[in-house]
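Q: Is it fine to ask for two folds in a single conversation?
A: Yes, each is treated on its own. Send the first.
Q: Here.
A: Result:
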Amino acid sequence: MRYAARVPWPILLNLRLRCHHTSCAGIHTPTAPGSKKFMNLGIETWLPRIWLTRGWHSTALLPLSWVYEGLVMCRQMLYRTGIFKSETVNATVIVVGNIVAGGGGKTPLTMAIVAHLKQSGYRVGIVSRGYGRSHQEVREVEPQSLAQEVGDEPLMMKRRCQVPVFVARRRAEAAKALLAAYPATQIVVCDDGLQHYALAREIEICAMDARGVGNGRLLPAGPLREPWPRAVDLLIHTSQRSMAMGYGSSRELASEAVDASGAVKPLQDLQSHAVNAVAAIAQPHLFFDMLQAQGLRLGQTFALPDHANFEDWTPPDGNTPLLCTEKDAVKLWPRHPHVWAVPLEFTPEAAFWTALEALIQGRHKL
């Protein structure tokens, strides 16, 4: 485990709050062009707002941040000194994560890395905690699995990547189970495990979105899960850059949507009339903005909390097409197969792949 800082303190650029298309207390709030936008006054919106600045709200939470930092540093020391053990597995482990709370584009990056490694001829598997699932035991994710049993993101990755995917509360246990079932696996990619030190790793990749490190403070006064800067092998920006260092990428929605039956509909065919959209991701407005960038005119938009299970949500009546993300589709399709999912196409710059391949060649377990 490496902890020495190798990335300088970032220069924050163009950080701004995006509050539209939100929901209150997890209940969908319809919006339409020109209508009043409702601000979510719950903690899920309030905290990210104060994390952008060092105002008095953030400063008032600093004592709690100092306690949190002490716990984080103590835990890191226990792993560095060997009191807590990091488990190694017989494969090259690549950990994809971030250092801020909330989504940062980790899962799209994980899927892009797995696709690239498969194309390069490696035998790859994925491990994940499976956030939000009802069971905590080690479990293999199958295409027909239920999202509530394995997690929405692992199920999405299984269907998209077509590689072994295992989930467990401790990712080290998931990795061992994966390799026991698929011993020929050469590389294990861990989705969202940068702070899961119990799993030893050869390569660490940090995903960072346009928020950067916010106000630079630790939870709860800021968004940081651990002090920054910290050592990582690769830093990649999954949207607008917040600092000069690191690799860039592009992200846009696919030109086609798909429903539960596998039917495909070009987004161009939906440009002649309004469509509705729903998203239960960390930053729903990004999905809505990308739909508009594809030339679609949005009617009602529904922003739910990240990983929402949609059990208490009902689509609007009428014949207006309803669009969602791939992640949400795995939960919506069992009850609403007519919903159209629009995949996200995430593409790191070529230099990122060159750097990753060099790291793999240097650290790959033969």
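Q: Second one now.
A: Result:
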Amino acid sequence: MTVGALGGQLRRLGKHSAIYGLGGLVSRILAVLLLPLYTRYLSPSDYGKVETLIALSTVIGIVLRMGIHSAFFRFYFDSPEPEARRLVLRTSFWFTMGMATIGLVVGLALSGVISSLLFGSADDSELVMAALVGLWAGMNYEQVTSLFRVEERSVAFVSASLTNIFLTIGATLLLVVALDKGPIGVIVGNFTGTLIVYAVLIAYRREQLGLQFDRGLLRRMNHFGIPLVPTALFLWVTNFSDRLFLVKLADTEEVGLYSVGVRIASALVLLLTAFRLAWPAFAYSIEDDAEARRTFGYVLTYLVLLTTWVATALALLSPWIVDWIAAPAFESSSRVVGPLAFSTVAFAAYIVVAIGVGRAKRTQFNWVVTGAAAAVNVALNLLLIPSYGMMGAAIATIAAYATMFVGMAWWAQRIYPVPYQWRRVVTAASTGVALVALGKLAGGGLPVALALAAIYPLVLFPLRFYLPAERRAIGARLRLGH
């Protein structure tokens, strides 16, 4: 694979990630701007209930999907023929529709029981019902918009996403501020835009979404996807169970404080979300394995570099960010931002190395890796939360993601070896951690924090992170800038 070909592949991935990132940027900015709304119109307890139901909806969705979403991306590229790809689309669409509807009907019937298990009484059953309708809408919307991603129509995907976002914001403002509907207004507002855009997309895709369903194809897709269900469940444990543990081992107020820290750390998730949207279609569409392997090696290095820089800035600046966007009652949320941001760096690395398992269609062992990470997460949550509250949950999260990355790197390299640049990956990550530690120990206020965040890429020069070709390229860009 030539340098030019590698550069072309990376530019292609970067182009689509950047476009996806535009939509994600707007989404994250609006989510952050909505925090003052949530923290003023909702109590920490109300906000904790909303976040708990979001976590529950995620795990139910994992079970109902049965891995079909991941299988859709893998099987879509098995054949270049439009008829074969259309069959994959239709089989995935109708399977998702059926499972989402079954989940909605059963969930509505059990809403009182679910409310009692989560919150101690059936008083919040309407809140549970609203969350289940949102789950139905989200599952079906995600399946339809995935077609834009495999077609690499990132602009169309972002257009649908932005429309969804602005409709959601309008509905949320109306319900929470104008009508004072509290937590149920947040949940209903969040799925209103999704339902409207989903209906429009169904009309737009009506010729492609015909009444066609292939049971044999579904069995093959399930063979690929079902082993990913326990994988995703264990990943959910790592992602969301901290809030459930905080509810039981602390209280809903601690969940609310922790959730604000999660939202601020999710600024890094913006970058990662943009990458994740582009990554599966990009990675599976590279036909030559040698070209794919070399490309994956560089992708891991550059993704760790970018995510570590953002995590470093978030960790250093978190006290001032919280002070700016949240009410004074949420001030202590800043303590968990740093650990949560760096846990996302480990998750980003995991996403890259896991793609080799998908290319090889060897997903049966993935659950062992994510299961080990979940076990670490649960054990540390139980051990640390009673004494350290939300900080214990944050420590458990970063330990679990690190376990998951190391385990998947070991497994994927056994079945799909890739020449990852491990020295550069470790250098990029450890430099960010060192700068954060220096900033916390030195103090100095906002100017010092800003300076340490800004110099991260410069510190990598004496550490010999950059390759000679990269140094020349950086030098050329600097000369052009002058």
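Q: Anything structural to flag on that second result?
A: Two points. The chain is about 85% helix and 0% strand. The CA atoms of residues 68 and 95 lie 8 Å apart.
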